[in-house]
Specification:
alpha+beta, about 130 residues, globular, about 45% strand
Length: about 130
Protein backbone atom coordinates (compact mmCIF):
# COMPACT_ATOMS: atom_id res chain seq x y z
CA UNK A 1 0.00 0.00 0.00
CA UNK A 2 1.30 3.44 -0.90
CA UNK A 3 1.32 5.96 1.93
CA UNK A 4 1.74 9.62 0.98
CA UNK A 5 2.35 10.87 4.50
CA UNK A 6 4.59 13.93 5.00
CA UNK A 7 7.45 11.53 5.83
CA UNK A 8 7.01 9.65 2.54
CA UNK A 9 6.77 12.92 0.62
CA UNK A 10 10.02 14.14 2.22
CA UNK A 11 11.82 10.90 1.36
CA UNK A 12 10.60 11.05 -2.25
CA UNK A 13 11.68 14.68 -2.57
CA UNK A 14 15.16 13.85 -1.26
CA UNK A 15 15.44 10.73 -3.44
CA UNK A 16 14.70 12.84 -6.50
CA UNK A 17 17.26 15.42 -5.34
CA UNK A 18 19.90 12.67 -5.24
CA UNK A 19 19.24 12.03 -8.94
CA UNK A 20 19.56 15.73 -9.88
CA UNK A 21 22.74 16.27 -11.94
CA UNK A 22 23.60 19.45 -10.00
CA UNK A 23 23.37 17.62 -6.67
CA UNK A 24 25.36 14.65 -8.03
CA UNK A 25 28.15 17.02 -9.10
CA UNK A 26 28.53 18.49 -5.59
CA UNK A 27 30.10 16.43 -2.80
CA UNK A 28 28.53 18.80 -0.25
CA UNK A 29 24.98 18.68 -1.65
CA UNK A 30 25.11 14.94 -2.36
CA UNK A 31 26.74 14.08 0.97
CA UNK A 32 24.26 16.07 3.06
CA UNK A 33 21.47 13.71 1.91
CA UNK A 34 23.31 10.58 3.10
CA UNK A 35 23.16 9.20 6.63
CA UNK A 36 26.60 8.87 8.30
CA UNK A 37 26.05 5.06 8.36
CA UNK A 38 24.94 4.89 4.70
CA UNK A 39 25.42 1.59 2.84
CA UNK A 40 24.56 0.69 -0.75
CA UNK A 41 24.55 -2.54 -2.70
CA UNK A 42 24.88 -1.09 -6.18
CA UNK A 43 23.43 -2.34 -9.43
CA UNK A 44 27.03 -3.25 -10.36
CA UNK A 45 27.22 -5.62 -7.39
CA UNK A 46 29.61 -3.34 -5.51
CA UNK A 47 29.11 -2.43 -1.85
CA UNK A 48 29.51 1.27 -1.06
CA UNK A 49 29.74 3.29 2.14
CA UNK A 50 29.02 7.01 2.45
CA UNK A 51 32.57 8.20 1.79
CA UNK A 52 33.18 5.96 -1.23
CA UNK A 53 29.86 6.69 -2.98
CA UNK A 54 30.27 10.46 -2.55
CA UNK A 55 33.81 10.28 -3.91
CA UNK A 56 32.92 8.12 -6.94
CA UNK A 57 29.65 9.75 -7.97
CA UNK A 58 30.77 13.35 -7.59
CA UNK A 59 34.23 12.81 -9.14
CA UNK A 60 32.94 12.04 -12.61
CA UNK A 61 29.55 13.59 -13.29
CA UNK A 62 28.32 12.90 -16.80
CA UNK A 63 28.23 16.28 -18.54
CA UNK A 64 25.46 16.38 -21.09
CA UNK A 65 24.39 12.87 -20.14
CA UNK A 66 20.74 11.95 -20.39
CA UNK A 67 18.89 12.49 -17.13
CA UNK A 68 17.84 9.52 -15.03
CA UNK A 69 14.11 8.94 -15.26
CA UNK A 70 12.09 7.37 -12.49
CA UNK A 71 8.86 5.41 -12.55
CA UNK A 72 6.62 3.50 -10.15
CA UNK A 73 7.84 5.46 -7.10
CA UNK A 74 6.10 4.13 -4.00
CA UNK A 75 6.70 4.75 -0.34
CA UNK A 76 5.65 3.31 2.98
CA UNK A 77 6.27 4.83 6.40
CA UNK A 78 7.54 1.84 8.39
CA UNK A 79 7.97 3.81 11.64
CA UNK A 80 7.91 7.45 12.72
CA UNK A 81 11.55 7.81 11.64
CA UNK A 82 11.82 5.27 8.79
CA UNK A 83 10.50 5.30 5.20
CA UNK A 84 10.94 2.60 2.55
CA UNK A 85 10.85 3.68 -1.10
CA UNK A 86 10.77 1.43 -4.16
CA UNK A 87 11.01 2.63 -7.75
CA UNK A 88 12.56 1.95 -11.13
CA UNK A 89 15.11 4.04 -13.01
CA UNK A 90 16.17 4.24 -16.63
CA UNK A 91 19.43 5.83 -17.69
CA UNK A 92 20.87 5.44 -21.18
CA UNK A 93 18.75 2.30 -21.70
CA UNK A 94 19.77 0.66 -18.41
CA UNK A 95 16.81 -0.35 -16.23
CA UNK A 96 17.21 -0.79 -12.47
CA UNK A 97 14.76 -1.70 -9.70
CA UNK A 98 15.63 0.40 -6.63
CA UNK A 99 14.92 0.18 -2.91
CA UNK A 100 15.83 2.90 -0.39
CA UNK A 101 15.49 3.25 3.36
CA UNK A 102 15.32 6.83 4.63
CA UNK A 103 15.83 7.67 8.33
CA UNK A 104 14.78 10.89 10.05
CA UNK A 105 17.66 12.47 11.93
CA UNK A 106 18.15 15.75 13.77
CA UNK A 107 19.20 17.15 10.38
CA UNK A 108 16.19 15.87 8.41
CA UNK A 109 15.67 12.78 6.28
CA UNK A 110 18.88 10.99 5.28
CA UNK A 111 19.37 7.97 3.02
CA UNK A 112 20.47 5.09 5.24
CA UNK A 113 20.42 2.14 2.81
CA UNK A 114 20.02 1.72 -0.94
CA UNK A 115 20.01 -1.25 -3.30
CA UNK A 116 19.81 -1.34 -7.09
CA UNK A 117 19.08 -4.45 -9.15
CA UNK A 118 19.32 -4.32 -12.96
CA UNK A 119 16.44 -5.84 -14.89
CA UNK A 120 15.38 -6.53 -18.43
CA UNK A 121 11.82 -5.71 -19.42
CA UNK A 122 9.66 -8.77 -20.09
CA UNK A 123 8.66 -9.51 -23.68
CA UNK A 124 6.62 -6.65 -25.01
CA UNK A 125 8.96 -3.97 -23.64
CA UNK A 126 6.97 -3.09 -20.51
CA UNK A 127 8.48 -2.91 -17.06
CA UNK A 128 8.01 -5.84 -14.74
Amino acid sequence: MTDRSPAVEAAIENELRLLDPEVRASPELFGELLHPEFTEFGASGARWDRESIVRVLTASPEPGGRPVTTSRMRGVELAADLVHLTFDTESNGRLVHRSSLWRRTGHGWRLWFHQGTPFTPPDGGGQE
